[in-house]
Design a protein that fits this description.
Length: 177
């Protein structure tokens, strides 16, 4: 009977330690990229904008978190936000829909984030729905590209500058634990 509280205590300590170790093996990597939506003189248009290559920075992250790329279990997109930065008083209301795709050398292009019905009164910030796809093969490469497929429902009379912020969540093993 006296061993039961001790066994329960040891179990609680062990499970707490496992949870702490699990948290140590997870980290977030932020990425930011700006792009321009050019003048669009016709409403109900679809336009594709591709970014130049974005450096993943995975090597320095692996070093910082004391792990290696072959110890990564999964990388998923946690969030993606678009912010209209110019014109300063503008909104993203010209968007009807948006889909964001990721590609990397040797990898098929996949959809990463989307909004199929952007509200006309959205303002300057849009939080996109994210896919649950494991994107480790894209982030583990040296760089990746993003492609924005934009549907508009109104004319865009001036160029629009948009900043994309995304956070990917890495679940890896630290020192093989």
């Amino acid at each position: 009977m006296k061993k039961t509280p001790l066994i329960i205590l040891i179990t609680i300590v062990f499970l707490s330690s496992c949870e702490i170790l699990s948290e140590l093996t997870q980290f977030d990597l932020p990425y930011e990229k700006s792009f321009s939506v050019p003048l669009i003189l016709t409403s109900d248009s679809t336009l594709t904008i591709e970014t130049p290559s974005i450096n993943t920075g995975i090597s320095s992250a692996m070093e910082k978190y004391k792990t290696e790329s072959d110890l990564i279990d999964e990388i998923t997109l946690s969030s993606m936000t678009l912010t209209l930065t110019d014109p300063m008083d503008g909104t993203l209301g010209f968007l009807e829909s948006i889909a964001v795709f990721i590609s990397a050398t040797g990898q098929d292009e996949i959809q990463l984030a989307f909004d199929t019905a952007v509200a006309s009164d959205i303002g300057a910030v849009l939080e996109l729905e994210t896919s649950s796809a494991d994107i480790q093969n894209y982030i583990k490469s040296d760089d990746f590209k993003l492609k924005f497929s934009i549907g508009t429902d109104e004319n865009v009379l001036t160029s629009q500058e948009i900043t994309m912020n995304m956070v990917v969540h890495v679940d890896a093993k630290v020192l093989g634990l």
